[in-house]
């Protein structure tokens, strides 16, 4: 058992565990502190400055995402501290001066949401003139899935840190310096010409919708219903949320980190390869090819019996070695077990393989 | 996250060796080090000197600007030269200054630089001959860790890099860490506009600096000692190397390493400097943890300024009390840099707490009718000339809402438009912001844009939100650069309101 002690946040006594940050304690207690650069899978960066709080005895405001709770600490958030509230008001205003705004003057929302928008609504913002930062985008990135708009980026570096700390792929980086800083790649090449595996985790972690899925850019988060399911591309069992609009899957997102086995991660297949769901060529029922050469719908019982019959015939005519079984990595471990059992026990052949085995 | 740094540390030197950041060079460095290409690109594009494009670098620091650097740049361009205007080069006593393609001071014949004349009694005595007998180091070995610390404490020595933090606390902090591997790093990335004292110390008294570093290494138990010398300081790095050679056997107990800066002011901030030494983008770390517990390669590290180390031999030889007695309002003597509208710009060793008036007297008097001065580099903003009798020390100036910083004093006379001066300083801070946190990255650009707009339109409405933005930069930024970047504008608006009226 780790040691516990009490800290005070906005006057409320809260129990903290040794090693926890102030932000972690606050969240458990339901005390909301805005964040942009925080992702619980990543080391705290303290870079976005959204979560600054007053800590008794500290001259400067401190990032609650990185500040360790200590026994008896007295913490004040924007709810009770005018100083922290003023800090947030001006900080949001600065972010907005460096961000695309809509006709209401709020940070625009893309298909990937925008946390800055909600936060801006909670603050009394100054109307600062746009700073027109001299950033350059990566031109001509033709990858099929990931789109980056530097004008919506707050440089929280969650995407680059995710690519590094979680995926260990290191395809993207902060590039340039000062107001020119943006997200880039080596040589500012397109993602297909880098080590990028197109897992899309950068999209998932982006808080402001600067990174979006190309195919799904138009559908806003509140327009969809999320249906939790298990990815069937392999046997890991990643949980994913089908984003459904008008009875159609328009996007796949990963559940909150820390809530499922995949901890908010998905691979290129799980996140992006969902087009088959509504594809016109997709088989949706069992079919048998008739003597006319065409496929005809049938029942599972009939289809399985037909396939079994055909295989048995081959075995009788040419012997068991004439038959081989290749299972799919989309099958579960149990299904793969059954596949080798059919091969070895029913057909008495060792010709069994699985596509992920090589 | 602490990464394996052995190969990463080679990234920046390799890029420099190959001629800067290009796709090809990044690939080559990746093959040589195994560091991901994107990381190499990200690190390389952070540094100005790795962008390639050699040419003549004309300084656009404040002192050079008021001495006509714009004209110099225009003249050189007219002669068909490739000219780049760059942040302060630390040659303010030769204003307007420029470096040629090989980083040599351009047209050095025009040198005006001055120093305090040789006086053997002075603790630093820039005018004296170098002395490699290393009596202080010998004495320090006899005193041992506690004996040395006692003298450092008695001397009241404060860090000369800008923060004025008591040296003995820092030294004790490193030496009492449980980790047996510790490092000593000399911060010679002097780049605060108007500051050139470390430059002169390295050129003239590397003997003292090196001896001081060796004594520090005795105290903290370090085997490896690092220099981080500003990239533009070639002559200075050579001087240090030559001195190290002459120090010879006296300092053979330690491994001495050289890192060069690559053109980023922010790397003078100690944690950004450490990141840079590790081959990364020079973005300051969150503090805590401080370098004395988590420094270079995550090990306890003593990072101190050139001048701080150079004070140490005197303290050991003569005793802490004697060093302390040199001070007026605070302990010791201090190297003050002065430039701008005065007759003999240079570096002067005066009692800590000397006033502007005393400093200007040493520097040959004012040129014209003085109106304002900046007490400690661009970061200290501006004060009106009526503060000329205030002591220039760490605590007093802090109370006055400014700072001594690196003691880079610039005097402006009444020919200067304060709004223009503020714009120049903001241009510097925008160029040199690391870009990590929004208050500084966006704030410095915003203030620079707005003061430029005011100068173009004459409408004070452009500066309506300057105080709010400045306040937030001070409250919200990660490091000291962001905290002070607003000062040149916000302080000018406070002390010289007439310069910001409708025009």
Look at the structure and give the CATH class of the largest domain in chain B: Alpha Beta
What's the mean pLDDT score of chain B? Answer: 95
What is the tally of helical segments of chain B? 19
Sheet/helix structural class of chain A: alpha+beta
β-strand amount of chain A:
15-25%
Q: What is the CATH topology assignment of one domain in chain A?
A: Ubiquitin-like (UB roll)
Distance between the termini of chain B: 52 Å
Descriptive account of the structure:
The complex is a heterodimer of chains A (358) and B (503). By secondary structure, chain A is of the alpha+beta class. Chain A has helices at 22-28, 82-97, 115-121, 158-166, 201-205, 268-272, 300-318, 333-346; strands spanning 4-9, 12-17, 52-55, 62-63, 74-76, 146-148, 173-175, 182-184, 211-213, 225-230, 239-245, 248-253, 287-289, 295-297, 325-327, 352-354. Among the domains of chain A are: 4-121, Ubiquitin-like (UB roll) (Roll); 224-280, ADC-like domains (N-terminal domain of TfIIb), CATH 2.20.25.90; 287-357, no CATH class. Helix content of chain A is 23%, strand content 18%. In chain A, strand 11 and strand 12 (248-253) form a beta hairpin. The radius of gyration of chain A is 27 Å and the shape is elongated. The mean pLDDT of chain A is 94. Chain B is globular. Chain B has helices at 11-18, 23-33, 37-44, 62-66, 69-78, 135-155, 167-175, 197-220, 234-247, 270-277, 306-318, 320-325, 356-362, 394-399, 418-432, 438-457, 466-476, 480-484, 487-495, and strands spanning 56-59, 83-86, 98-99, 114-115, 183-188, 224-229, 255-260, 301-305, 333-340, 346-351, 370-374, 383-384, 408-413. Chain B has five domains: 8-45; 56-112, Glutaredoxin (3-Layer(aba) Sandwich); 135-318, NADH-ubiquinone oxidoreductase 51kDa subunit (Rossmann fold); 333-413, Ubiquitin-like (UB roll); 418-500, NADH-ubiquinone oxidoreductase 51kDa subunit, iron-sulphur binding domain (de novo design (two linked rop proteins)). In chain B, 42% of the residues lie in helices and 12% in strands. In chain B, 61% of the residues are buried. Chains A and B meet through helix 2, helix 4 and strand 7 of A and helix 2, helix 3, helix 15, helix 16 and helix 17 of B.
